[in-house]
Every structure is written in C-alpha cells, then in structure tokens.
Amino acid sequence: MSDTRTAIDYAAVEQEIRRELAQAGNKTQAMTRSVDILKARLPDYTWVGIYELFGNELVLGPFRGKPSPHTHIPVGRGICGAAAAEKATIVIDDVNADPRYLACSLDTRSEIVVPIMRKGEVLGELDVDSDRPAAFGPEDKRLLETVAAVLAEKL
Ligand code: SME
C-alpha cells in the first residue's frame, strides 16, 4: 500500500483553511468549510466531522463521509468522549484494538480526535476516521490541532 501522506502539502492545507475561516461569517460556515477542505485535500481522511459540546454531550455538526449512528456522545464514552474528558488529542492506530471505540463504519481502521478548546474549556472536537491503519502521523496531528485552535475562535 502506498503512503499517500508524502504527496500532501500540509502547510498549503493549513493556509487554505486559515484563509477560509478568516472569511467565514458564522460558526456553521467555519465548521462546514473546515470539514470540506480537510476531506477534499487529505485522501486518507475517509470521514471528517465536528462535534460541538452542549452540556455533557457531544453533538454531531457538519461532517463529510457516510452518516454516523453516533450523533450524540456523552463525555467519557467512545474515543470522542475520552478526548473531551482528557482535553487532549487521541490517535488510535488500530480502532479494533481499542475497547473504547464506537464504530461508525466497519471499514474504519484508524481515528484521530482533537478537542477544540478555548481558555481550557472544550467547545467541541474534530474527528477524523481513515480506512487505512495508522493513517494519522505527527503532521496530521499538528494540522488538525492548528485547525482546532483557529476554529475555537469561531465557535
Ligand atoms: N469512533 C468515535 C465515534 C464517532 S464516529 O467515528 C463518527 C468514537 O469512538 O467515539
């Protein structure tokens, strides 16, 4: 299997998202443009979505990919709930080896969840699934954490 990551210009994707978010008129536009660009530019990103935190529950907002059965996830449940509880990025190289994992698609092999935080408070999360095992490396983590930081200003 070829490694598609070598062909990706992460800096260009970051700049594109920064440009788009600077022009976004509201949070829905900001979230929608972010998932659109990430899904379009990163071939290994099979499913890209944003959850917003309302009370103790993560609620699915804009996403690209197959519809997920997990539209409402309590903090502490699944990989998404764990990342919200820990206020930290979680990278799962093999979702089938993690008992916390809530399946969205049977084809998913790896996942990254990045909290969107402002002043230490979780506002939501960026969630990306891949059909490729261990699809998320340091550059993906850095890109998605940067996008989460920019998005935090819009949520
Ligand atoms: N896999 C996530 C659930 C969300 S779906 O991937 C879209 C989890 O374990 O929390």
Structure in words:
By secondary structure, the chain is of the alpha+beta class. It is built from four helices and six strands, in the order H-H-E-E-E-H-E-E-E-H. The chain has helices at residues 10-23, 27-41, 78-86, 138-152; strands at 47-54, 57-64, 72-74, 90-92, 110-118, 121-130. Strands 3-2-1-6-5-4 form a six-stranded antiparallel sheet, with helices on both faces. Strand 1 (47-54) and strand 2 form a beta hairpin. Helix 1 packs antiparallel against helix 2 and helix 1 packs parallel to helix 4 (138-152). It is globular. The relative contact order is 0.19. The model has no long low-confidence stretch (mean pLDDT 95).
Q: Key features?
A:
alpha+beta; six-stranded antiparallel β-sheet; single chain; about 160 residues; 4 helices; globular; binds methionine sulfoxide
Describe what is shown at a glance.
With 155 residues, the chain is α+β, with helices and mostly antiparallel strands. 34% of the residues lie in helices and 26% in strands.
